[in-house]
């Protein structure tokens, strides 16, 4: 199983939100799945219908990053992700 990682420096991303790197990693993983490439479905449809095992960890990382934005404790600890 390969590890997906956004290769560019996170400061170069067009999207400057707190979870931009996690989002980019999840997008790249989704675009390389059979659901998108073979079945010709959109990444959104593949995400809703069932996720490939190799992308599940990235989905959880992105979810935790987004959830940390709502957590008041992050004022002191900082945001998860990059």
Report on the structure:
The chain is mostly helical and 82 residues long. 55% of the residues lie in helices and 0% in strands. It has a domain at 20-74. Helix 1 (20-31) runs antiparallel to helix 4 (53-70). It is elongated and about 45 Å long. The mean pLDDT is 78. Pfam families: Pet191_N. Involved in an early step of the mitochondrial complex IV assembly process. This is Cytochrome c oxidase assembly factor 5. Keywords: Disulfide bond.
Structure, briefly:
The chain has 82 residues and is mainly α.
Through-space gap between termini = 23 Å
Q: Per DSSP, what share of the residues sits in E-state strands of 2 or more residues?
A: under 5%
Average pLDDT value?
78
Classify the secondary structure makeup into a structural class: mainly alpha
- Using the CA coordinates, give the radius of gyration: 14 Å
Largest sheet: none
**What's the count of strands?**
0
**Helix and strand run:** HHHHH
Shape: elongated
DSSP helical segment count: 5
Low-confidence stretches: none
Helical coverage, percent range: 40-55%
Could you list some keywords that capture this structure?
0% strand, Cyt_c_oxidase_assmbl_Pet191, disulfide bond, Cytochrome c oxidase assembly factor 5, 5 helices, 82 residues, elongated, mainly alpha
């Amino acid at each position: 199983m390969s590890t997906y990682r956004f290769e560019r420096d996170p400061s170069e991303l067009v999207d400057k939100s707190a979870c931009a790197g996690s989002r980019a990693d999840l997008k790249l993983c989704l675009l390389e799945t059979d659901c998108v490439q073979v079945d010709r479905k959109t990444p959104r449809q593949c995400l809703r219908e069932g996720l490939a095992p190799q992308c599940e960890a990235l989905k959880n990382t992105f979810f935790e990053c987004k959830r940390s934005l709502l957590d008041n404790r992050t004022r002191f600890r900082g945001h998860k992700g990059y």
